[in-house]
Amino acid sequence: MGKVLGEKSLFAGAGPLAVRMRPTSIDEVVGQQHLLGSGSPLRHLATPDASSGVSVILWGPAGTGKTTLAHVVARSSHRRFVELSAVTAGVRDVRAVMEEALSRTSDGGEPTLLFLDEIHRFTKAQQDALLPGVENGWVTLIAATTENPSFSVITPLLSRSLLLTLHPLTDEDVASVIDRAVVAPQGLAGTVSIDDTARAAVVRLSSGDARRALTALEAAANMVGKGGVITDAVVAEASDRALLRYDRDGDEHYDVISAFIKSVRGSDVDAALHYLARMIEAGEDPRFIARRIIILAAEDIGVADPSCLTIAVAAADAVQFIGMPEGRIPLAEATIHLALAPKSNTVIAAIDSAIADVRAGNFAPVPRHLRDAHYVGAKKLDHGKGYKYPHNLPGGIAAQSYRDGNDAIYYVPSGHGREQELRERLERIRTALDGS
Fold first, then answer.
1. Which phi-psi region, left, alpha or beta, contains residue 324 (left: φ > 0; alpha: ψ -120 to 50)?
2. What is the mean pLDDT of residues 355-370?
3. Could you report the per-residue pLDDT of 188-238, keeping only the tens digit for each?
4. What's phi and psi for 65, nearest 5 deg?
5. Distant-in-sequence, close-in-space partners of 296: CB < 8 Å, separation ≥ 6
6. Burial class (CB within 10 angstroms; exposed 0-12, middle 13-18, buried 19+) of 402
7. Peptide bond connecting 325 to the previous residue in cis, omega within 30 degrees of 0
8. At 251, is the pLDDT very low, low, confident or very high (cuts 50, 70, 90)?
9. Across residues 27-50, what is the average pLDDT?
């Protein structure tokens, strides 16, 4: 079978399948029901009598319907639809849209809906250019972003906007989109069929992105031709990537993350990257991966290399800030750093040992010289009396008791990485605390 990706579609209709299958009304939209219920702001905006000058920011992953919702609102409310991309448009383009919108409304023409894709790529000056049109009602603005608007949209525009968060489509949502596209007259019109295994394969590959699912479906349909049957083998070849057996809610989900954790713990950087790639390609939630990396940094490395926790947290922040697919890069950087770092589980061993001691009742009142001496009446109780201030002593260590009736040792350095230095320092500290 030869690949036909990128070739002209064999099926009726102009434009890609994802464009042809775009809903024409709110009721045809799949998913995002939390935003589309009766009486919701977005549904109201899709009515002809909705007021102009409304600003809406749609925040969500790729393929969740941001562009579709803008088209549907414009069509349903009888507004003129104008689309600008932040990648190619500048301040001059924005101002031109605003001026034409004002001219049209002044002459009694149809109102304008401006859809601005990837608003997070707009500079402050470019976003400032939007404000007059929004404030004066010249346009109804719908802006789309995959990044947190709190960081990427200027405050004046954000404060005048209705922020709506879109969720990734569920597997059931994507399967519904696929089935509709197979039979719809504007889609594949029933000229091909798809078996259940192939449908599940397209759903997995889509990672909650309807546009990606329809692109993969169209490529597979072009490959089998009219009257053909799409199988998982066809989907694999048409999508030019191996199908991943990965159920985000099943055993494979837990098996792969377990293998990832154990590979990092075992310092096999290439195995760790392999399992990271499998999770990314299968559409695993990158926030889930980032959380596991943070736990790894503290549990399996700890103070043997304290920089690992900093890098893990930074990777999690980066994923939240930039989204996917770019988020794969900081995730990979953190994975490599952690896999090659010296390993130690002494941090979790120490805190769990201390917790077990406390739960067993092995604790006594706080020594009097360590108690708070700043509140009224503390002096009468001799709180703080006899406390030795370490900063006033040679070496900065005071030989005094910090626990009464408990000399248990919880932290035992491993001697790996920085803990070799800590082990030697800890021996000196404990000797000094004993006053010997």
1. beta
2. 85
3. 999 999 999 999 989 888 877 888 888 889 989 988 888 999 998 898 888
4. 110, 20
5. 261, 264, 265, 312, 338
6. exposed
7. yes
8. low
9. 81
Lowest mean pLDDT among 357-371, 373-387, 395-409, 411-425: 373-387
Contact criterion met (CB below 8 Å) for 235 and 246:
no
pLDDT at 436 over 70: no
Q: Is 265 helix (H, G, I), strand (E, B) or coil?
A: helix
**Which pairs count as long-range contacts for 255-261, CB under 8 Å and 24+ apart, including other chains?**
256/282, 256/284, 257/284, 257/288, 257/289, 257/292, 260/289, 260/292, 261/292, 261/296, 261/300
Q: Are 57 and 118 in contact (CB under 8 A)?
A: no
Rounded-to-integer distance, Cα 419 and Cα 416, Å = 5
Distance from C-alpha of 145 to C-alpha of 133, rounded to nearest angstrom: 20
pLDDT at 3: 33
- What does the DSSP assignment read for 336-354? HHHHHS----HHHHHHHHH
- pTM for the predicted model, two decimal places: 0.53
Question: Which of 345, 321, 339 lies closest to 276, judged by CA?
Answer: 339
Question: Are 157 and 114 a contacting pair, CB within 8 Å?
Answer: no
* Structure tokens that stand for 268 in this block: 């096999």
More confident: 241 or 80: 80
Please choose, from the candidates 89, 91, 81, the residue with its C-alpha nearest in 3D space to the C-alpha of residue 124. 91
Contact 60, 165 (CB under 8 A): yes
Q: What tokens does 214 get? A: 């329809």
β-sheet bridge partners, residue 165: 59
Separation of alpha carbons 357 and 355, rounded Å: 5
pLDDT (average), residues 405-420: 86
- Is residue 28 scored above 80 in pLDDT? yes
- Of the candidates 229, 236, 231, the one whose C-alpha atom is nearest the C-alpha of residue 193 is 229
Contact residues for 148 (Cβ-Cβ < 8 A; gap 6+): 59, 320, 321
CB 84 within 8 A of CB 116: yes
